[in-house]
Structure formats: structure tokens, C-alpha cells
Write a structure and sequence with these properties.
By secondary structure, the protein is α/β, with parallel strands linked by helices. The chain has 20 helices and eleven strands. It has a nine-stranded mixed β-sheet, sandwiched between helices. Strands 8-9 form a two-stranded antiparallel ribbon. Helix 4 runs parallel beside helix 16, helix 6 packs across helix 7 and helix 9 packs across helix 10. The radius of gyration is 31 Å and the shape is globular. The N terminus and C terminus are likely disordered. It binds 3,4-dihydroxybenzoic acid. The site of 3,4-dihydroxybenzoic acid (DHB) has 9 residues, from helix 13.
Amino acid sequence: MSYGKMIHRAALGAAVCAALLQAPLFPAAVSAAETPQQEITDTTGTPDAAAAETPAVIDHSAEYKPVVNEFLKEGEGQPASETVPKTAPKYTGADREAEKELLKLNKQYAKEKAAARKARAAAEKEKAEVREKKQASRATFDLTLDVNNYKQQTMQVNGSAVTFRAYEGLPYAAKPYAPEYQKLNLYVPDAYFHGGSVNGYTAETAPIFLPNEVGGYMPGDAATPSETSRHGGANAVLRALSRGYVVAAPAIRGRTLQDANGYYVGKAPALIVDYKAAVRYVRFLRDKDLLHAGDTDRIIASGTSAGGALAALLGATGNSRDYEGYLKDIGAAKERDDIFAVQAYCPITNLDNADMAYEWMFNGIPMVNGSTLTEQQKKASAKLKESFATYLNDLNLKDEKGNVLNVAADGTGLFKEYIEGKYIEAAQTALDNGTSLGSPAWLTVSGGKVIFMDTVKYANAVKRLKSVPAFDSFDLSSGENSEFGDAETDRRHFTWYSLVESGELNLPDPETEKAEDEKAALAWRLAEGKPQERLALRKARIEKEKKQEALPTFQHVATPQVIHMMNPMYYIGTPDARTAPYWRIRHGVLDRDTALAIPAILALKLENEGSQVDFKAVWGYGHDGDYDLDQLFDWVDASIQDKVQKDAEAEAAEEAAKEAGHDRQAKDDIPVASQKGI
Ligand code: DHB
């Protein structure tokens, strides 16, 4: 085999792989039969190479070589119809005509494609311009704060008075799309205005608690302090104040918001853009001496469910440039937006992979409301469960001992044991605290020790809350479908899988597509030296591509960029973002709004990339948050201590290194003669 041919083949393989990898997002754009030509030079016959090269009609009969695999005897390994005849075909006049026509066709198609792309871009631009014009008249706000415009308030926490200054309704974006939401409340312990300290913190060192009240990806109100809460006692805002924290509580845009023109203004990624703008605003106020207290290197985000996902996203994407355009558009302050710590309760996160994780846990489990799954859903469940293994294994997550936490296609493996360990740990903690576990069929307790968990029995006990797929519904009915809409579309898909399965666009099933692409690539290769055959193949291919390109997929599925910006997993440990160093993640044992695998994957990824992570399942709770506020703030205090100590150690080490450097330098400065003792 000639070297050129080997390259051709390797490149073809690579190109097919690349095409398949891309397939989930850009299926219409990829054609296995025409991909090789981009990377290789031995491409005389491939369509676009033919289009690119100028014209001399080549007589392939002279250089014709059969396709061979040196590991097989001739004729083996290929169906008879695919074996190449030994004798080179003769070129006829019709062949030459076909060759010329192929060149022409390719050129013309390339032109048509470019023109279509341009037209599409222009149409999109025009639509955006119309929208921008309509929205340009929106009100603008000053990012400032009248330090004297506050309310002094006193509330009770555990029988003690907590006095603080309340600055409420401060716009954190100069050009907001929803001014009623893009504002925040600021609360500062009164002691800091009198040189005092609270819980060991001063005006300079006080942490800044940044809770969000987002739920269901709906608009979230700005939190306010309260002496009562769902779980009893003061709420998180008041508790934070009582412990000496400054509180900055932003309201956040959500998926249902529309402006006066009817445009949606709170679809993804609006919520993270707002949370970041709030962080930047707090830094801005502190820099301008408008905020009297708070250490902006100690900002702690907190939220539950969609709000937990939001807190995690903020913690993972610090200062990433991806959001810059959006932040500029709403007139956010020019500041950093990285934070110190994250509290995420039952985060509904990693949405584009959560369907697979859900089926990994709940495949074959009945719905809690008694409804039944359709045959299509049952099939999808099995498929998603199987795909979870591929997704998870690609992450290469490791436990603290360095074991790689994989699963097999049937769902078993070390990762499953890790998850079971989390439930077992939750049960053990409850038992050790004197809580009765009852006698759940899925747990084995012996001699006061929880020793075994049966995942299938667990899933059957809690049952599945959500249908299939749990997040990217085929019928676009989920809250997440609505989150992934855009200014003019209420609901879209955010996985290629659900878009295809939904049948909305009559897209071919990816596996059929893959098989067809491979077949087309082979047919193309086998037609080498047969211009008439190639012409027919090329025509068929172009027809197919044109049909695919005409599909308005962008109206049905969110853009890859937005899907990326909504998922913390894509940012953790990348040079593009500064990930928060401290994380506390909680997921109720009875929670099945998302599978425990989802927060677990987040926690492991964070740990593997160097963050400090306290991740636990919690006995007795379902989909809930803020049930352990004292422990939460104890953890924040301890994390701050840990950071202070680490910084001191780092500084000492740096000093020591400098000293050593000086010593070496000093030695170097001594004349050689005296070093030798002369
Ligand atoms: C929430 C719950 C869900 O089940 C979900 O899919 C999205 C958000 C929530 O409670 O915020």
C-alpha cells in the first residue's frame, strides 16, 4: 500500500470519527463522504478536492489501484458486491463528460452553500437588529448607592437582637431587560458602622453571603431577612447577619419573563448573567467605598434546586470570558465575578447529561403518580441508561484513593458503589445521631452499622418522579425546555437525542445516519476511477445535504454555546475560568428530581480539579434546601479559617524560598578564593 493511501485511510477513519463526534450538534453540516479532503493530499477523486483543483481531466484508469487491506486475502472481508474488479475499467467519453460535470457540480454546490449560509446569517442579523432597536429604548440606571438611604432594622435570632442596615432594590445592571428583577438587597450588620466586630469578623473581614431564590428556572425574588422559615427559626439571610456576614441578595431573571414587546428576556443564560452582574456590583460598591463592610474575596453563593444549579454555575465559571458580551449588554460593572464558596442544595444541574443519569438510576422503575411509559419512552430509557456509561467513563472521575469511577453498559461498576456509599453514609450519620431509619427494604443494618444498599430496591421505594426523558422532554413540556428557549421561542430542546427522538423535524436516527455515512464513504472509495458512478453518488449526497440544511434546527434546539454556558462541568479546571475553592453540596436521600449521580459527578469533578468539596446525601430530606443553616455557616467559617491558614503557609513557604534564594545569592557573591578557604 502506498504511503499516500495509508494517510488517506487513516484520515478517512479520523474524519468519520470526527464527523460522528460532531454529529450530536451539527449533523447536517457533516458528511463523511466528503470530509477526508480537508486533511489530506491524496484526494484526487474526492468531491471537494475535485472542486478546488482546477480542471485538467485526469485519466484515472492509468493509476487505478484496487482497495486492499494487507491483512486480508483479496476478496476477503468485503461483500462480493464491494470487491473491486482486478482489471482497470476503460475511460469512455461518457466518463470524461461525467468527470467534467462533477467538477462543475461541486463548484456550483460550494457557491450555493456559501450563498445560503450568508442569506441565513443576514436574516438572523436582521431579526436581531429589529429586536435590538425595539429594546434599545429600555431604561438605564446608575450603578451607585446613596449610603444614607437605608432602613435600620432589628430582628431576633434565638432570643438575641440582630441590628442591621437594609439597602433594598439597588439596580445591579445599568441597562437591564427586566428592571423589576435585575436589582438586589444589601444588608450590613450595624456593628460594622461603629467599629465593632461580630463572630470574630470586622468590616474588613466579614464574608459576603449571596443567596438566590431561584426555583424551577423561574424568576427569583431578592431574599429578605425573616425570623421564621420553612424549617423553623430565622431564615438564611437573618442567620447570616447574626453571624456577622454581609448579605447581598439579588433577584434574578427567569424563563417566563417577557418585555413590553413580547420578547422573552429571561431565557438561558440570563440567570447566570444576572448572578455574575450582582457579584460585580458588590465589588464595584466596595471599590468605590459605597459599601461599608464585606470582604469581596469571601463571597459565598447559595441556592436550592435550580438555584443550587445557579450557585454552582457561578462558582464554576468565575471571570470566564464567555459571558462578557451578555454582561456588557446589560451594563454590568467592570469587575471580577469569581467567588470564594458555593452552597448548592439539590442542584438541578448538568442539564444536557441529566437525562442519562436519571435513566441510569430509574430505568425500569414505575412512576410515582402511577402513569405508564410509552413504548418509545421505555426504549429511550434503555438507550439513555446505556449512554450514561459512555458519558461518565469519558469524564475519568476518580475517588480520593485514585480509583477511576466507571460503570459498565449495564450500569454496574465502581461509580455505582460510590453512589451507594453516599446513601449508606447518610443512613449511618442519621443512625449515629439517634434517628430511627425505620426499616427500608433497600438498606441492610447490622449491629448498628449500615452495611449494604440495594439500588433497585431504593429506586422502587422512592419511584420515578419524572417521565422519560426527565429533562429534555420529547414534547417540550419540561421547565428546562422553557429555560432553553430564546428571545422569540418559548421552548427548545437542548440535547440532540431528544430533538431527533421527538420527531419534530423528521431527523434520521443518529445510528442510521452513522451507518449511512459509512456506507456512503465506502461507496465513494469503491467508485474511484468511475466518474459516472461518482457523479451519481455526489448528486445523491448533495440532495440529502440540501434537505438537511433546509431544516430549521436552530428554532428547535438551543445553540451549543448557550448549552455550554449553562453547565458548570465544562468550566471546572479549565484555564478559561476561576473555580471557587470551597464547595458544599447536599442532596436529600428521598430526592428524585434529579439522580444523585448528577451532584456526585459535579462534586467529583471539582475534587479532581483541586477544590475542597463537602458533598453528602442527607437522610430524611427530599428535594429541599436550607434545612441545616447552622452547619452551613459553621462550614463557611471553617472554610475561611482553612483559607487563612493556607495563605499563611503559602506566604511562609514563599518567605523561606526567598531566604534560601538570598543565601544562595550571598554565597554566589563571595569571591571564589574565599569560598575555597584561601
Ligand atoms: C426544580 C425542580 C425540578 O425538578 C426541575 O426539573 C427544575 C427545577 C426546582 O425546584 O427548582
